[in-house]
Amino acid sequence: MAWVVKRTDTFLESLRNIRKNKEALAELDKKLKRLREDPLQPSRQMAAL
């Protein structure tokens, strides 16, 4: 499954703010990796609540 990120002004501003924050980028990378492995995982977590 291919994900597309629409680059809105809000997204670009947020990206500019965290671009130099190595910890935040590492967390985003982990979340993207989990989404690639199992795209339905967030839905399953919400269903369990």
Give an account of the 3D structure:
This protein is flat. 69% of the residues lie in helices and 0% in strands. It starts with 8 loop residues before the first helix and ends with a helix. The chain has helices spanning 9-18, 22-37, 41-48. It contains three helices and no strands. The model has no long low-confidence stretch (mean pLDDT 79). The chain has a domain at 21-49. It has 49 residues and is mostly helical.
Structural class: mainly alpha
Give the SSE order as H and E letters: HHH
Oligomer: single chain
Mean pLDDT: 79
Shape descriptor:
flat
Number of helices: 3
**Portion in beta strands:** under 5%
Query: Are there runs of 5+ residues with pLDDT below 50, and where?
Result: none
- Gap between N and C termini, in Å? 26 Å
Keywords:
49 residues; mainly alpha; 3 helices; flat
What's the topology here?
Blueprint lengths: L8 H10 L3 H16 L3 H8 L1
Short description:
69% of the residues lie in helices and 0% in strands. The protein is mostly helical. The chain has a domain at 21-49.
